[in-house]
Amino acid sequence: MEVICKHYTPLDIASQAIRTCWQSFEYSDGGGCKDKELIHRVGNIFRHSSTLEHLYYNFEIKGLSRGALQELSRHRIASLSVKSSRYTLRELKEVESFLPLNETNLERAKEFLVFVDNERVNAMSVLALENLRVLLSEHNIKNDLAKYAMPESYKTHLAYSINARSLQNLLTLRSSNKALKEMQDLAKALFDALPGEHQYLFENCLKH
User: Fold this and answer.
1) Among all residues, which ones are annotated catalytic?
2) Can you tell me which residues bind dUMP (predicted)?
3) 75 appears as a binding residue in the annotation
């Protein structure tokens, strides 16, 4: 999995929004330590977390499974633009068979699938991938029908935009050791991709 922060709102947008409430612009230090502390105090300590919604982050996420994508889509408020199976399943049509299930073919399958810490599950995922490949390349089934045979482990690629308040909720829930392991990995990757000067707003959200 790869997560890149493509764009983000400068912190002073949030501090200026907060200062609008009290008309305290004269106390701003131009986005320095005072303004950063103000965002944390009002948004995190005093729980006026709607002020954090002025901060937006735009991520590119590569290699997330479709199963994890379902869990990610439950988080609000966020916007997702996802790789379309209708237009991109052709990537499997010219690929050679993934059978037999030997070391070489399992390694080849990792281009398309997220593997987990269970060999039997991985093997069944590769068999599902092979069935999908056969539908597309040997039976000429249209992508819109063939996609119903896609395994949950199939990798996808998306643009993901989320505000700071919603991101805090995501990191809190998905960094827990009770969360799906792939979602734990995603939560950490999202945090790590944040600009360094923004991470202080989210440090207390991480469970481990």
Assistant:
1) 174
2) 71-74, 84-86, 147, 174
3) yes
121 and 181 assigned to the same domain: no
**pTM for the structure as a whole:** 0.95
The answer to whether position 89 is within a domain reads no
163 is annotated as contributing to ligand binding: yes
**157 labeled binding residue:** no
SS3 131: helix
Asked whether residue 129 falls in the same domain as residue 188, the answer is no
String of DSSP letters for 10-56: -HHHHHHHHHHHHT-GGG--SSSHHHHHHHHIIIIIS--GGGGGG-E
pLDDT, tens digit only, all 208 positions of the chain: 999 999 999 999 999 999 999 999 999 999 999 999 999 999 999 999 999 999 999 999 999 999 999 999 999 899 999 999 999 999 999 899 999 999 999 999 999 999 999 999 999 999 999 999 999 999 999 999 999 999 999 999 999 999 999 999 999 999 999 999 999 999 999 999 999 999 999 999 998 7
The phi, psi pair for 95, rounded to 5°, reads -85, 140
Return the bridge partners of 163, or none.
56
41 annotated as belonging to a binding site for a ligand: no
